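ARCHIVE CARD
CATEGORY: sequence design from structure
SOURCE FIELD: tokenized fold
FIELD CONTENT:
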């Protein structure tokens, strides 16, 4: 089919760029009349800036980034919408071998349980403080990232003050494993395959994962320039359909070997295909050759994995407030809420007959087991979801939640 729309999309070399890459490589974009031009970047700051100056119409973006742009928190900020998520889960917290050994000595368990590993971190922090040693240094990929908020949430819930007891710095994803190996950092939170990189090289140990800290939560979204999206509704809808078909293809285990081979190409991630298979299969090499199975480590399609829930947007906003990035107000909350656009998602995907949630938001942590929920197009089962400490996030009680987490 001839191309009717040329769309330039920035992406970072990460496992969850799969949906964009497979959309191009497997012909899903072309079948919708889209000439999808993918451009790899080396940092999230570069993605942000090239979106702002108009080099990209859309981009693989950290889920909180469009919200931060619309709140005016980023340089060169331009209005950006998130009409689709690019899957659930996909990141992990990796620590140095030395830190892991210390954590084991304080009761951390090797099963990726965030509660036990968090207690281990807390004890190590207390020991270092008592000896007058420098605080532990962790890295995340960007200030406005799920990695930053989930690392802080995990630490705080385990009694570690992320503002005082540790230092958190910014490092681009492809440099994380080398930063750990050099001794510049003690741990990091990043998307795959950059935790696998450290584990396989023998430089670190995966301590816990996003899928255990906040189950069924988004990692990246498709960010689209708001003006471009308004001026080109047919092109955006066609791209969303292509990405939906790509997500279905990426989710099929029978396609994982082929997908890993595509991602390993020098134009994309440029790393061994075997690294990609750990995240795709959920069979993580956590270090020392030990493999741990997590069926929901990265979910590309099931459980409405690409639906842009407004409750997700508001949780990220709540963490921006919690950690002092912005003051809470009704106006700011509304900006965050309206950044995610389930209306555009439903309108674009309705012809495909896929499951479309009838609600725009949900209570995070309310589903303790797989539960059928209201949907159009096809049946839909969600859950379990929520936070490892059992806390609920009700988007209708945003202010109370923010107040409960202050201090």
């Amino acid at each position: 089919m001839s191309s009717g729309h040329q769309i330039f999309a920035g992406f970072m070399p990460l496992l969850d760029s799969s949906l964009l890459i497979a959309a191009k490589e497997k012909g899903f974009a072309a079948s919708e009349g889209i000439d999808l031009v993918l451009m790899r970047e080396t940092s999230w700051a570069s993605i942000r800036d090239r979106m702002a100056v108009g080099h990209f119409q859309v981009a693989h973006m950290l889920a909180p980034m469009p919200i931060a742009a619309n709140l005016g928190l980023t340089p060169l900020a331009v209005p950006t919408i998130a009409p689709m998520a690019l899957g659930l889960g996909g990141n992990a917290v990796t620590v140095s071998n030395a830190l892991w050994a210390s954590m084991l000595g304080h009761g951390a368990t090797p099963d990726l349980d965030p509660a036990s590993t968090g207690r281990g971190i807390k004890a190590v922090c207390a020991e270092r403080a008592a000896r007058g040693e420098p605080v532990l240094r962790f890295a995340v990929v960007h200030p406005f990232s799920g990695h930053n908020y989930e690392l802080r949430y995990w630490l705080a819930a385990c009694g570690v003050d992320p503002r005082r007891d540790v230092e958190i710095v910014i490092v681009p994803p492809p440099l994380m494993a080398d930063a750990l190996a050099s001794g510049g950092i003690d741990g990091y939170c990043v998307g795959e395959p950059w935790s696998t990189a450290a584990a396989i090289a023998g430089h670190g140990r995966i301590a816990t994962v996003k899928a255990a800290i906040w189950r069924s939560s988004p990692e990246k979204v498709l960010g689209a320039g708001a003006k471009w999206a308004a001026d080109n509704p047919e092109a955006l809808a066609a791209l969303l359909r292509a990405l939906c078909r790509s997500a279905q293809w990426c989710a099929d285990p029978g396609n994982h070997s082929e997908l890993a081979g595509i991602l390993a190409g020098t134009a994309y991630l440029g790393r061994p295909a075997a690294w990609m298979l750990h995240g795709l299969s959920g069979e993580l090499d956590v270090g020392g050759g030990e493999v741990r199975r997590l069926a929901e480590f990265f979910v590309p399609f099931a459980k409405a994995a690409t639906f842009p829930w407004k409750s997700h947007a508001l949780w990220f906003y709540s963490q921006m407030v919690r950690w002092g990035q912005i003051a809470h107000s009704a106006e700011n909350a509304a900006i965050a809420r309206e950044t995610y656009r389930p209306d555009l998602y439903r309108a674009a995907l309705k012809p495909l007959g896929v499951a479309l949630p009838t609600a725009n938001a949900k209570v995070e942590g309310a589903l303790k087991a797989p539960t059928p929920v209201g949907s159009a197009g096809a049946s839909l089962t969600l859950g379990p979801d929520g936070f490892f400490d059992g806390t609920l996030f009700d988007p209708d009680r945003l202010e109370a939640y923010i107040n409960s987490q202050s201090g």
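CARD ANNOTATION: Residues 233-251 form the longest helix (19 residues). The longest strand covers residues 5-11.
SHELF: design records, drawer C
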